[in-house]
Amino acid sequence: MIPSDETAQVRAARFRRRDHPTLHQKAVPGVPRDLANSIDENGSLVTVPPVDWIVCFVPGLQSQWWHRFVLSKHKHVYAMRPTSTGSWLLVEPWWTRMMVTILPPADAVKFLRWGGTGDILRVREAVPGHASQLRGWSNCAVLTAFVLGRRSWTWTPHGLFRRLLRETSTRRENVEDLLVEQFTRVISQHSADALAVSADQLSLPLEELLTIIGRNLLEAMMTPSLIEVCYTAILEAERYPAATRVYAEHGPKRAIAVVSRILDRAVCDGHIDLVDCEAGARRFLAMLRGDVHLQAVLQIGRIPTPAELDLRARTTVKRFVRGARDDRATSRDTDGRERGAMSCRSEQDRA
């Protein structure tokens, strides 16, 4: 929904802003000239590319006198869009105010579930837009159309729904697909950053390499956005199992695969002796995580400091590697050498 890289567009807009002859106007008194000359062709100080909004047309939560005049499933409308950190931006018109707030994933699911009782549309906003402030009296349909930059004369949510549905770029959405998309983007980014290993790091001794991986994983686990996503995945596991599976596949399973390959290489080099490197990777991650992650998800106590996470990573690696080397020392027989050779061959086959 949010363009991942708009650097080229923003840079091009800056050049347009710099070269546009009509933009270099006389500054309004009291306004710095550099600001007055920094506006783009749309009259904005910053150039923001258009993004997709999730527009929810919903029945009422409580009975109102005016509900009899509108469609039963489309009595109210509001707009949402995800951020890059896992939270959601909510714009909901009320009778008395416009609520604009950032919701954590668990709270955002409540509004998405509400949207699922009616209809959910994905709509690309218009920039600079075609709406007008001269519209006069505003309700939820009018204000949502204004957020989207649409020129719409409808007064009802259902009228706006039909208007947006006629646009070829508009798509229907469902709650589970939206959660899968959001979880995949957030978890994949954190996993990629935590598990990134350079060629130079691969040549480090096993303990140093595992310490780097372990510290990165702990820091990622303790990131507030990932803690919120994990909490939501657990909370909504029964309702939206596909979203929970995404969390497991792009989080723990991906980490297990990376650590398992590192352990396979260490077995081939004779540094440790493990019969099952995947099981060893699971054990290492379980030791690393312990109950510190569960406490963070349940909001018990405080989040460990970076120094405490570093100490935990180093301690876990020392215990794990010592155990793996003790196993090697006690199993230096023919059977043990055969197991090591089999593990090495399996690593070569995978390579």
From TrEMBL:
Region (Disordered): 324-351
Gene3D superfamilies, per database record: Tetracycline Repressor, domain 2 (1.10.357.10)
Domain Transcriptional regulator TetR C-terminal Proteobacteria type: 209-322
UniProt cross-references to InterPro entries, sorted A to Z: Tet_transcr_reg_TetR-rel_C_sf (IPR036271), TetR_C_Proteobacteria (IPR039536)
Protein's UniProt name: TetR family transcriptional regulator
